[in-house]
UniProtKB/TrEMBL annotation:
Keywords: Hydrolase, Metal-binding. The keyword Hydrolase applies. Residues 27-233 form the Fumarylacetoacetase-like C-terminal domain. It comes from the Bacteria. SUPFAM superfamilies: FAH (SSF56529). Pfam families: FAA_hydrolase (PF01557). This is Fumarylacetoacetate hydrolase family protein. GO terms for molecular function: hydrolase activity.
Amino acid sequence: MTHIIPKQKRVFLPVVESDQLFPVGRVYCVGRNYAEHSKEMGDDPERDPPFFFAKDASCVVPASFSDVTGISYPMASSQFEYEVELVIAIGKGGRNLTPEQAVDAILGYAVGLDMTRRDLQAQAKKKGRPWEVGKSFDESAPVSPILLKNDRLSVDVAKAEIGLKVNGDVKQISRVSNLTWSIEEVICKLSEVFELRPGDLIMTGTPENVGAVVVGDEMVAWVEHLGEIRVSVTD
């Protein structure tokens, strides 16, 4: 049996201090999961439950902790915006997970960017249409190597600083503890509507002060204790 067209290339993320690779399955994103970002987007964070959208696995760009990773300015947009996020790598699947099972499902963590064609997203929202055109496009999810949840990661990621700079200027700064829905709650809620699988990634939301970048800009995104990635915008 042969394939009628070439198979789509699968994306793999390196694992820190290991020769193993993490095969990326599905990429789930949590909308407006920091209160201040919810406010700047016009929502009431006290009222809104978490909601989810997805990026295709092919959107993921492995980003190094040591080198600059280039991503192209996307087609059809004039408002290309950054969103720094803590990324969860799922190692065990399941549905309707308890908080204890949610913790056990976490294989490790990474630093990610949920790059957004904000103008196209805004147009879709105005017409009540899905967000894919603004969120799920080529190179829209640079993600760092995965740091496994084991003895090497003895710190509490739930309290870590998260931030982003553009050309050296701090644009986003917060702490993971400011999540409206915690890491475990996000996993539990997501498992109520999708059966999670090993290989899934969950982008947990972004702090306030999202903004646009242009060709030539360089972003530095970090989560305390995990590391930082440098991503430049190219033609």
